[in-house]
Specification:
This protein is an alpha+beta fold. The protein has one domain: NADH Oxidase (3-Layer(aba) Sandwich). It has helices spanning 8-19, 34-47, 65-83, 89-104, 120-125, 133-154, 169-175; strands spanning 26-27, 57-63, 108-115, 158-162, 182-193. Strands 1, 2, 3, 4 and 5 form a five-stranded antiparallel sheet that branches. Helix 2 packs antiparallel against helix 6. The longest helix has 22 residues, at 133-154. The radius of gyration is 19 Å and the shape is globular. The chain binds flavin mononucleotide.
């Protein structure tokens, strides 16, 4: 029997979680105004929880040409690895470059950073938790990533999550003049999907979930 919820928004929320997928085939179009994208990302940044309300998440929204600049930076960085002999030229030409160009074909990228330096006072104040604050800051950042990813999908975008740090960190900080304390974690690429996402398999839920006291 399907579970009954009191609030239809709960069903809608879970449905959004279910339909959020990794979309790699994207085009540089947007179903909504740039202001709406900006508002969506801002609200996610504002309302994502953080340990002790430390609010260490930092976000940069890149649209259109600025988004393309990001992926040009990544392409140049990977090309540099080829020159340095660390990535085979064939791998770069046949796999890496087409993949990076597919990201470049999107409409925008959300850059997610963590400001670990901002945790210094609270680490001192709660010394007993000092080692936990960095992982908690990252967990909080991941929550914001998930919220933005799901909300963008809800508005008709497709998105995929990338991790090209630290390779592109310096260039990004320079290009957009970002504070040195902003440590890049993830890049969420988005655009209008041009293909269905690949099939997804699921482990049996019984192997992943237990309930007691029902
Ligand atoms: C923490 C995390 C890191 C990920 N890193 C990458 C990544 O670097 N590159 C990538 O293409 N996908 C990345 N993904 C996407 C996963 O591969 C994808 O979410 C997973 O296979 C499930 O597919 P779905 O997103 O379509 O549901 C990441 C996902 C998560 C949650």
């Amino acid at each position: 029997m399907a579970a009954q919820f009191k609030n239809p928004a709960t069903t809608a929320l879970l449905e959004l979680a279910k339909t959020r997928r990794s979309h790699y085939a994207l085009k540089a179009e947007s179903p909504i105004a740039d202001e709406a994208i900006e508002h969506l990302v801002q609200q996610a940044v504002l309302h994502t929880p953080s340990s002790f309300n430390t609010q260490t998440g930092r976000v940069v929204l890149l649209l259109k040409e600025e988004h393309q600049k990001l992926w040009d930076i990544a392409i140049a960085a990977l090309e540099g690895l080829v020159t340095a002999g660390r990535v085979p030229k064939e791998t770069f030409e046949n796999q890496t470059k087409p993949k990076l160009n597919a990201f470049r074909n999107g409409y925008g990228t959300v850059l997610f950073f963590v400001d670990y330096d901002a945790l210094a006072p609270i680490k001192e104040k709660f010394a007993i938790y000092a080692d936990n604050f960095n992982p908690w800051a990252l967990e909080s950042n991941a929550m914001a990533q998930y919220l933005v990813w799901t909300a963008l999908e809800s508005e008709g975008f497709g998105a995929n999550l990338q991790h090209y740090s630290p390779l592109i960190d310096d260039q990004i900080a320079k290009q957009w003049n970002l504070p040195a304390s902003w440590k890049l974690d993830a890049q969420l690429v988005f655009g209008v999907p041009t293909a269905q996402p690949g099939e997804k398999t699921f482990m049996p839920l019984e192997e992943r979930f237990k309930v007691f006291g029902k």
